[in-house]
Design a protein that fits this description.
Helix content is 25%, strand content 23%. With 432 residues, it is an alpha+beta fold. The strands form four sheets. Strands 1, 5, 7, 8, 10, 13 and 15 form a seven-stranded antiparallel sheet that branches. A six-stranded antiparallel sheet has the order 2-12-11-14-9-6, with no helix packed on it.
Length: 432
């Protein structure tokens, strides 16, 4: 099962930065029983992460034995390599006696681990405690008031590990007594089943969905691969939402006025705008679907110059920033279909091909596993070496007056390729 990293930073964070001189200190002058390790003065001083020896050897380790702590720094903690006993001697605040138990652990974090949580397995419940993780970006410790576990920050592999991808974890107990730590567990989050496919489209999409019988093709995929994909689609607001049976929902359901707009700038607004109408449409899509595909009309392929191409790219990078925040979803960007040669002129087809190549290339997709691109342009367009390159293929053109809407053959070819792509992408991202 492919893992993903979710944004789950909880509200337990107390000491955001504890970076004075790269150290963190307890302040015994505080007047509460719980002392913040991020305080900048006092008796307890934890060395900066950069001063600790490299010690982790297990790559991708998700369970650390309680007794597998570093030799130093260490206080009031004993272990046999398997479990560790923490014996804090932290008396009532009025006694002025402060002696916490603490130990530091080390683990190598792989960029693909997508860790979401750290959990501590104790034999007996401690009275109070803190968990600190190294923040190498500032050479300091990031503290959380908890003895049981913490939600890990989303930028763990960027800001919190050293060049060898090593993360240090400090477990610190206050209170009084003997407490045995069995394990530290680094939890990976399972991608949920991705069976609900949604497609936002207009006219060409309607041809692919109905004329190309994309639901029937997905059903064939389900039968052949023992999957249970369902397909939902939404055209213009007046059409509304269509369910897995291919019928519009009764009573009528729609995702708002904004579904009437699917140009690149409109799609950018769909995924990024704070305007209430866009937010309403966005929330409905996000709440009801798991694999989310969307496309612009063939008019988006009329890219007149490099500045317009650059603007398209900027909008799509902005969308991708939103997608990165939702690894529980798979987003399928679809390249705009090509134009009929009589409805475009040089150099627009060249820029249209360049845009499709960019969306399907590493510059846009690499490092963003929940973002994929179906190249509808390439399915329907003539090749770059053909006499009339990068326009709607002759075999996919309507008869009569020039029309960029693909004919039945084009819609069937697109539906066949798209159904396979959507299902394969969902299976690949979720895992077998």
């Amino acid at each position: 099962m492919r893992r993903f990293f979710s944004v789950l930073l909880a509200g337990i964070l107390i000491g955001l930065v504890a970076c004075a001189g790269g150290t963190s200190q307890l302040d015994p002058s505080q007047t509460t029983d719980v002392i913040n390790p991020a305080a900048q003065s006092g008796a307890f001083n934890l060395p900066a992460p950069s001063t600790l020896p490299h010690s982790a050897t297990a790559i991708g380790q998700t369970e650390i034995a309680g007794g597998a702590y570093l030799a130093s720094p260490l206080n009031l903690t004993w272990g046999d390599g398997t479990v560790a006993q923490y014996s804090p001697d932290w008396a009532d605040i009025s006694s002025k006696h402060y002696n916490p138990a603490y130990a530091v652990y080390s683990v190598i974090i792989q960029p693909v681990d997508h860790l979401v949580r750290l959990e501590l397995d104790w034999e007996d419940t401690p009275q109070s405690g803190w968990i600190g993780i190294s923040e190498f970006n500032n050479d300091c410790w990031h503290w959380y008031e908890s003895y049981s576990g913490i939600d890990l920050p989303e930028d763990l592999d960027d800001d919190y590990v050293n060049d060898d991808h090593e993360l240090f974890i400090t477990v610190l107990l206050t209170g009084h007594g003997d407490f045995v730590l069995n394990h530290l567990n680094l939890v990976e989050w399972d991608t949920p089943a991705l069976s609900n496919i949604f497609f936002l489209h207009h006219d060409v999409g309607e041809g692919i969905v109905v004329g190309g019988n994309i639901r029937g093709r997905i059903n064939v995929y389900n039968d052949a691969n023992d999957t249970e994909f369902t397909f939902w689609d939404h055209g213009y607001k007046a059409d509304g939402l269509r369910g897995p049976d291919g019928e519009y929902l009764d009573p009528y359901v729609h995702y708002g006025e904004m579904t009437n707009n699917t140009d690149p700038e409109d799609l950018f607004n769909l995924w990024t705008s704070a305007d209430p109408e866009w937010v309403w449409t966005r929330n409905l899509i996000m709440e009801n679907h798991e694999v989310i595909a969307f496309k612009s009309s063939f008019t988006a392929s009329e890219i007149t110059d490099g500045d317009m191409l650059a603007q398209y790219q900027t909008w799509h990078l902005g969308m991708r920033d939103f997608f990165d925040q939702h690894p529980e979803k798979l987003f399928v960007v679809i390249t705009p279909p090509p134009l009929h040669p009589d409805e475009t002129e040089h150099p627009s087809p060249i820029f249209a091909r360049a845009f499709a190549d960019w969306l399907t290339g590493n510059a846009y997709l690499q490092g963003h596993p929940n973002v994929v691109c179906f190249d509808l342009f390439d399915v329907l367009a003539s090749g770059s070496t053909m006499p009339f390159p990068n326009v709607l293929l002759p075999g996919f053109r309507q008869t009569g007056d020039p029309n960029s809407m693909p004919n039945e053959a084009g819609c069937q070819a697109a539906a066949m390729a798209m159904a396979q792509f959507l299902c394969d992408a969902a299976v690949a991202y979720a895992g077998d």
